[in-house]
Write a structure and sequence with these properties.
Oligomer: single chain
Number of strands: 4
Strand content: 5-15%
Structural class: little secondary structure
Helix content: under 10%
Amino acid sequence: MFLEGANLAGANLEGAHLRRADMTNTNLRQARLHGADLQNAFFSRADVSYAYLHGADLRHADLRWAKMEHVWANRTDFRCATFWGADLRRGDLHRADLRNADLSRKEVDLVTPPGSSSSMTHLTGPFPEGWQISSYHFPSVKMDQAILLGAQLEGADLRGAESLTREQVQATANYSEHLLPADL
């Protein structure tokens, strides 16, 4: 389903089946997505602030650069989701499942074909002459004041989490010491 750039602010999408939906740049601010099936959905640069995601299934979702401030995501399944550069400040992730989620900082190669202004990732070379290859460093995932009480963090890569405190991590159900930010 292609919903890129749609304005779904305040929409009632409870229980919706939106697997693999492309919601890049979509406004989902204050949307009600309780129990929605959002597996493998793309939320890159989407505004999900103040949205109600309680019990939603976001396994393998792409949440790069998503605005998720004050999101209510209790008991939400984020297993294997990608959060590079996402803003989760003041989000409620109480008992959320973040096992094997990627909240790390990433550096990726961007590949731009000649005569194009858009870059692509996940391409393999060798590339024809004239193609530009550059690196991009994804920013930190903002976690200040996020509620992680009882969240499942087994295998989650939190090394890029900004403003994450030892108290937040200790309130979770489990975590891996080696996948925490260096300053914890």
